[in-house]
């Protein structure tokens, strides 16, 4: 065959391959929605239920196909919550709560129940940054003597959707756009906001997502919420509806947006590093487990549906009862074997904990297990060490991918007589799991109860509950997120949608995104507040905070040693920052080692800043642009700044010079309120350190936001 003939046949062959591929291309336009089997779908927003408030029916082939396909879309990375970090610990109940539940691990205060907790972001891939604006996962596996119990929680108490059948839709919308895989770990793009404006039930969740809650300071300073409604069942068979809460003993604190963005570049592992280092230093994170409970007969006593996962049970209406404490005290030995292979499932419950007809929970009970089958190679993922219960396992399940147990004997079925029917079912008296006998009846329908139709009142409640600073941050988040949307119609629809939350909020959103304000700004009919949702009302504690100390040769060792000793006594960590790594020498001749230089760190990695005296040290720092930038950025991010003796002069050389550092008492008081603590006389060092520590505990000093002229650009 000559060369030309060969080229001709190759051309024909390649062309025929391309023609074959055309049959696989799908450019979805105005076609009708179908299943993967080609069956036209009449409704895809609600799963099939027994009555409009009843449980989801497994015969819903569209729901199962949609969720199954979604669960298996990514290999081997998790579809959501891909970037996570796990730690070990233990849980102890404060006192027996036999009145509410027969769950054994909630009865004996002397028992330490082992736990494994995986914190995570939701949207980003494994390689994304820790500090992106996102929901955070807070999943806890309790290794109880009755079996494993998984409390699969988030750091936000509500969710985007009411029915699990919409879960693939919201995740597809918020993930990188499919045509160009952009943007990573961000909701700031067209497809997500297109989904939002077409799905008004997202309104409440969007308010939380654009608040400071979505950029936590640390996993150690982050609440956890079970989101869904479960049941407690006691020994007498009495049930109560329950929601779960994790309350951090360090309080709930956040980053600022500029800080979070810079950390994503400077230290994308910021949150996992923070947790790893805290545990290694013995600063064990602690969280109290709280429960909200509603009696079954009170189910319909509220102006919201208690099964609606887009709603909170406001704590001032349904108080949180704190029943125990979890302490995280052990880092993993192998990230893959433990953190990556751990498998959580809200269907992993123990006697005394049961489910409700929450339609999001009903879908999760199918989806989580289904996901593990593809991620971890089949049905035996429970035999992986991190997933193995401490309770003994006895059943007739055999074989399958990656089976590790060597089952002996010929019997693998039930009932049997060859082995006296062993292993035999446990009676209720033997603590066999018995599902709560809820009466269920209704026609098979694809619809929601009318009680799920209120999408805006709790979004307004959340907005009403925010401090002025938190409101400002939410508006700025709207400006960034929706300002990144290209489609002008979607931007306008965002304004119109959130006019239903608060008219003035909508006006402020419009001003920053190039959209028209609403023609008739809505005056909310909801005027009450829920103080628990505002971080303004959280615990203020200086423990485990981290303070940077700017230093050069010729520092005052007496001052710095006193301050460092006092800070350490309050549980505050310190790190010396200088232009170069190595040893620095004080005026008295003592030496201190530099922990970081300006290249390897930044103000964004610390909770506060201290500048000690020493004329030579301060004079050198004054000539360093990096040092002045460190101070200016710390001030911009509303963090505590302290300076003693000549260190005050360095503040005067920075952009903070617009505020008098010394002089009249009123000026000193102003600086103190703004979180800038200074003394000229080293004899007052003890007074300084106490005031400095108190200021650090405040986390931020938002009064600076009202004094824009003082904040460096």
From TrEMBL:
Pfam families documented for this protein: Catalase, Catalase-rel, Catalase_C
InterPro entries linked to this entry: Catalase, Catalase_AS, Catalase_clade2, Catalase_clade2_helical, Catalase_core, Catalase_haem_BS, Catalase_immune_responsive, Catalase_large_C
GO molecular function (one): metal ion binding
Active site: 81, 154
EC number: 1.11.1.6
Keyword Ion transport belongs to the record: no
Known role: Decomposes hydrogen peroxide into water and oxygen; serves to protect cells from the toxic effects of hydrogen peroxide.
Protein name: Catalase
Organism: Natronincola peptidivorans
